[in-house]
Write a structure and sequence with these properties.
It is a single chain. This protein is an alpha+beta fold and 742 residues long. Among the domains are: 3-120, Transcription Factor, Stat-4 (Orthogonal Bundle); 140-313, Glutathione S-transferase Yfyf (Class Pi), Chain A, domain 2; 324-408 and 420-455, STAT transcription factor, DNA-binding domain (Immunoglobulin-like). The protein contains 23 helices and 21 strands. The strands form six sheets. A five-stranded mixed sheet has the order 15-14-13-18-19. Helix 6 packs across helix 8 (98-120) and helix 15 (491-506) packs across helix 18 (551-571). The radius of gyration is 35 Å and the shape is elongated. Mean pLDDT is 83; it is low at 412-419, 681-690, 708-726 and 732-742.
């Protein structure tokens, strides 16, 4: 079943998450129509290879053309229209930057895998539960309802101001008419009656002025209360969700809803401002003793301007945190002289601001860091915000060609930096701009979440650990001295984040048993870890007992192993991985001989091994574990082929494959058959070698077990076996003994 087919079977709450990251950058129609083709391409590799990305984009457009031909024959007018629009959009948007669409599609596929993994987990973790709090959802609905009510009130007040203007014009006309009469005419009865009517009209004008000012005051008060309470909380919650999403958590949404609220409030405030200006016009044409306008209007206008300043300042946000396109799963880790991207948005979407706001990017501006290192940004660091580049038409700007460059220090401070010093230094990318609108000039500033600067890719794992720890432990966006005294983290939350590393990076999270093993490894014993506090040093700086590496280095090596060598097996759920030797034997001891499981090595970085259960002639159970395979050996032969071809030579020199069933009882070929690189075939003739008469050879993993040993004595590397030797073996052994030939 394709990944997209699995996605379509998810519950509605997970489908809503999927819906959030499909837009005009990569329309869902294309994902649906080209599901199998899209999943068969290596978009992640293309995101770092412009030539490959160019070819994939061309092939994508060809696939869209083929779909257009198909739907044209079916005369599906709506789909024809949409596909033509999408093709034009894709070609125009990515023709000059094909790697960008490779990054987008790669990210979408990865998010799908993360959501599928989350849906398969029986229980949500504490962090994810907090992000989906029903109280938060209720507040979101209340904010939207109140914003809509405020907008309606402002519009109704417009009508009151218009009525007041009409009433004053009528009063002004009638009053001037009387004033133009001769003195003798002013004493007539009709004129006296008219004067009484004008006095009544003046009283009505006074009442209406006070009423309009009161209504304006109520609208301003409602906006003030909403901004001070619920809207501020909503924005802070979105920023917290963004932090969690950056370290692998659920994809954050809600920014479009916030934009709608901010925009409506800004429109309402500008509408109130125009109403106050209109009252000022009315004041210049007519005033009287006790007139409320000159008393109340200045205070109301000052409050409106104050609210507009605050609204604009809060609306300037970093929509997508700094990230190197080469490492999309590791945002906020930046390497010197390597380009990174960052996207900003102004949540107040007004057409008058399109291309009028120029944003400048700087690094470590007005921020005191604990580092002696200093950086500058190279590349295009000033750009205009516009509504054309974003798929949803938001007012935004994306910097795509920024590079951090380290400035040479005359103090020579680099020599004093320890191995963890660089990866615990936090820096900030700052952005500033100015909005000039309707006579207002507002200076805006915002900053990214803290970033870690590295100069060598070998520093990336520890730098990413710092990013995880910071964003897990605090919602303070600018605590540059955080690692002077890093707080402890709740173990249950940390384990949840570690599971996210696997779901976001390698497509499948960790279950409760796997997390329990990690908890034991961190704590050194079986504990209840719900409320346990783990230190930063224990996580990333102190070596594991008896080992020369830390917990995080060990875990990161496993992630790298999965990603590069056993990804399909991991996604299928056939790698138990995190299980101790003691638990391994408990699981296998009552199983059929030949039952095996796969686990990650605890002593070798980035190693994977398998252990199988066997039964001696006297009925005793014995276990055999092969020497862990690392990335060097797995580069020579795929792990699935190793499991298929693995042989053990017993004391009588009869080679056999001891691996029969994957724990608990899955036939080996049923589990791994689809991942074999080729099917068993007949031995090639010498002339088929294709290499100037050489006899071709194949690699077969072989171990030797002595009768008095319970483990392979010296598991060898992949040993070459010539077809002639293999042919002799086939003559003396049945197909059930030698299961495969390569």
């Amino acid at each position: 079943m394709s990944q997209w087919s699995q996605v379509q079977q998810l519950e509605i709450k997970f489908l809503e998450q999927v819906d959030q990251f499909y837009d005009d950058n990569f329309p869902m129609e294309i994902r649906h129509l080209l599901a199998q083709w899209i999943e068969s391409q290596d978009w992640e590799a293309a995101s770092n290879n412009e030539a490959m990305a160019t070819i994939l984009l061309q092939n994508l457009l060809i696939q869209v053309d083929e779909q257009l031909d198909r739907v044209s024959q079916e005369k599906n007018l709506l789909l024809i229209h949409n596909l033509k629009r999408i093709r034009k959009l894709l070609q125009g948007k990515y023709h000059g930057n094909p790697m960008h669409i490779a990054v987008i599609i790669s990210n979408c596929l990865r998010e799908e895998r993360r959501i599928l993994a989350a849906a398969s987990m029986p229980v949500q973790g504490p962090l994810e539960k907090s992000l989906q709090n029903s109280v938060v959802s209720e507040r979101q609905r209340n904010v939207e309802h109140k914003v809509s009510a405020i907008k309606n009130s402002a519009q109704m007040t417009d009508q009151d101001v218009k009525y007041l203007e009409d009433l004053q014009e009528e009063f002004d006309f009638r009053y001037k008419t009387i004033q133009s009469l001769e003195q003798s005419d002013k004493n007539s009865v009709l004129i006296k009656q008219e004067m009484l009517a004008l006095q009544a009209m003046l009283n009505t004008l006074d009442y209406k002025r006070k009423e309009v000012l009161s209504k304006i005051g109520r609208v301003i008060h409602e906006i003030d209360m909403l901004m001070s309470n619920m809207l501020t909380e909503e924005l802070l919650d979105w920023k917290r969700r963004q932090q969690i999403a950056c370290i692998g958590g659920p994809l954050h949404g809600g920014l479009d809803q916030l934009q709608n609220c901010f925009t409506l409030l800004a429109e309402s405030l500008f509408q109130v401002r125009r109403q106050l200006e209109k009252l000022d016009e009315l004041l210049t044409r007519m005033t009287y003793d006790g007139d409320p306008i000159p008393v109340q209007r200045p205070q109301l206008l000052e409050k409106v301007n104050f609210l507009l300043y605050n609204l604009f300042r809060n609306s300037f946000v970093v929509e997508r945190q700094p990230c190197m396109p080469t490492h999309p799963q590791r945002p906020m880790v930046l390497k010197t002289l390597i380009q990174f991207t960052v996207k900003l948005r102004l949540l107040i979407k007004l057409p008058e601001l399109n291309y009028q706001i120029r944003v400048k990017a700087t690094i470590d501006k007005n921020v005191s860091t604990v580092s002696n290192r200093r950086f500058v940004l190279c590349g295009t660091h000033v750009k205009a915000m516009n509504m054309d580049e974003s798929a949803n038409g938001s007012l935004s700007v994306e910097f795509r060609h920024l590079q951090p460059k380290e400035m040479k220090s005359s103090a020579g401070s680099k020599g004093n930096e320890g191995p963890h010093m660089v990866t615990e230094e936090l820096h900030s990318i700052s952005f500033e701009t100015q909005v000039c609108l309707y006579g207002l000039t507002i200076n805006l500033e915002t900053s990214s979440l803290p970033v870690v600067m590295i100069s060598n890719v070998s520093q990336l794992p520890n730098a990413w650990a710092s990013i995880i720890w910071y964003n897990l432990s605090t919602n303070d966006p600018q605590n540059m001295s955080f690692f002077n005294n890093p707080p402890a983290a709740t173990l249950s939350q940390l384990l949840e984040v570690l599971s996210w590393q696997f779901s976001s990076y390698v497509g499948r999270g960790l279950n409760s048993e796997q997390l329990s093993m990690l908890a034991e490894k961190l704590m050194g014993q079986q504990v209840s870890y719900n409320d346990y506090q783990l230190s930063w040093a224990k996580f990333c700086k102190e070596h594991l007992p008896g080992k020369s590496f830390t917990f995080w280095v060990w875990l990161e090596a496993i992630l790298d192993l999965i990603k590069k060598h056993i990804l399909p097996l991991w996604i299928d759920g056939y790698v138990m991985g995190f299980v101790s030797k003691e638990k391994e034997r408990i699981l296998l001891k009552d199983k059929t001989p030949g039952t095996f499981l796969l686990r990650f090595s605890e002593s070798n970085l980035g190693g994977i091994t398998f252990t199988w259960v066997d039964q001696l002639e006297n009925g005793d159970v014995t276990f055999h574990s092969v020497e862990p395979y690392n990335k060097g050996r797995l580069s020579a032969l795929p792990f699935a082929d190793i499991l298929r071809d693995y042989k053990v030579i017993m004391a009588d020199n009869v080679p056999e494959n001891p691996l029969k069933y994957l724990y608990p009882d899955i036939p080996k070929d049923k589990a791994f058959g689809k991942h074999y690189s080729c099917q068993p075939n007949e031995v090639s003739k010498p002339s088929d070698g294709g290499g100037k008469g050489y006899v071709p050879s194949v690699f077969i993993p072989v171990s030797k077990i002595l009768n008095d040993s319970t483990d392979p004595h010296s598991p060898s590397d992949l040993l070459p076996m010539s077809p002639s030797v293999y042919a002799v073996l086939r003559e003396h052994l049945s197909p059930t003994v030698i299961e495969t030939a390569v």
